[in-house]
Write a structure and sequence with these properties.
Length: 343
């Protein structure tokens, strides 16, 4: 079969998978059983003019970089400026304000845009928002995990699929729930969003910061559960960096390892080094494979052909990725919205 026909077949299968009716019950794949596509740094104006266009893109994951600003005590959204906002999020809180208001807003406004867009598209696909905490949380200025949860909850309400939803009042940890296959179906996640948290590049380079976002939010989840308040948590912390075996063992103490079910690492490292990624699928963990274009043989990181995207999606689905990401914002919603079976 030629590349064009193979791509058409794969995208056709993706469309069939995505279009399963909401009442299909057992026929609808679980969130942990599929592989989809995300867009790196979707908040940048060079990626999309407005963040609402990123939401329109069909992508299953959109990345946002957040700084805690010690001067203003605000959540800033920017790639490299910790003291200012530089992004495509608008001062828009209602659907009719989208695509028209001033940009370079804070994280709260990004959430406002999501809420307004949701009003226009209440039955949208499940979307993961990957939040890179560039310089980490800062409890000393009131910008810690509790405040993050409060902001997300106030802005988005029950749109958010939370850690407590995975626990379902049944399981004692996220690990136990994931291993039991407790993830909902994609149909059940219609209209829902999920927040993934990773430590940021500035935080990781700070010689005075040894308590990064992943550990801090892992501790937060453990403590909330112990206090009977796990329903207030709004995000899933991710283990950052591709590794062979279970990276939680060497990075975290035993008390928080079971609170990590998201893993996030470089696709080429997983694939080209021959890591056994079946571990993630077997335990129903969510594996984010970043830099999908860089897997051998490399393809364009910005505008590959539809056939190349389809081939790369198929390859990484076979390597047990849940979501693959790259800078493919130029691709159509039909391509970015592709969803295929995992593994």
């Amino acid at each position: 079969m030629g590349r064009a026909r193979r791509a058409a077949a794969l995208l056709g299968a993706a469309a069939l998978l995505w279009m399963l009716p909401g009442h299909a019950g057992a026929a609808s794949p679980k969130f942990s059983e599929t592989t989809s596509i995300g867009v790196h740094n979707a908040y940048e104006k060079s990626t999309y003019t407005y963040f609402a266009q990123a939401l329109d893109s069909g992508a299953s994951l959109l990345e946002i970089d957040v700084y805690t600003d010690p001067l203003t005590r605000r959540w800033r959204v920017s790639h490299s400026n910790p003291l200012g906002n530089d992004n495509n999020c608008e001062a828009a809180k209602t659907p009719d304000e989208l695509y028209s208001k001033s940009r370079n807003q804070d994280f709260g406004s990004c959430l406002d845009n999501i809420a307004a867009w949701h009003q226009l598209h209440p039955d949208h696909r499940p979307i993961v928002f990957k939040v890179e905490m560039k310089n980490g949380f800062n409890n000393t200025i009131g910008l810690g995990p509790d405040e993050f949860d409060t902001l997300v909850r106030q802005k988005l309400g029950d749109m958010v699929y939370k850690p407590s939803d995975l626990l379902g009042g049944t399981y004692p940890t996220l690990d136990a729930a994931a291993r039991a296959g407790a993830w909902p179906s994609r149909d059940e996640l219609t209209g829902k969003v999920i927040f993934e948290l990773i430590p940021g590049t500035v935080e990781q380079r700070n010689p005075f910061d040894h308590y990064w976002t992943d550990q801090e939010y892992g501790d937060h989840l453990r403590d909330l559960y112990a206090a009977g308040n796990i329903d207030t948590a709004q995000a899933f912390p991710a283990v950052l960096g591709a590794a062979a075996g279970d990276p939680r063992t060497s990075r975290y103490d035993a008390s928080i390892r079971p609170w990590f079910v998201f893993f996030d690492g470089d696709a080429a490292t997983y694939v080209d080094r021959g890591y056994d990624t079946s571990f993630y699928a077997a335990n129903h963990y969510i594996l984010i494979a970043t830099g999908a274009a860089g897997v051998s043989p490399p393809i364009s990181s910005t505008d590959p052909t539809d056939a190349e995207v389809a081939d790369r999606l198929s390859l990484l689905a076979g390597k047990h990725a849940s979501i693959i990401t790259s800078d493919w914002s130029a691709k159509s919603p039909a391509v970015l919205g592709s969803v295929v079976g995992r593994g």
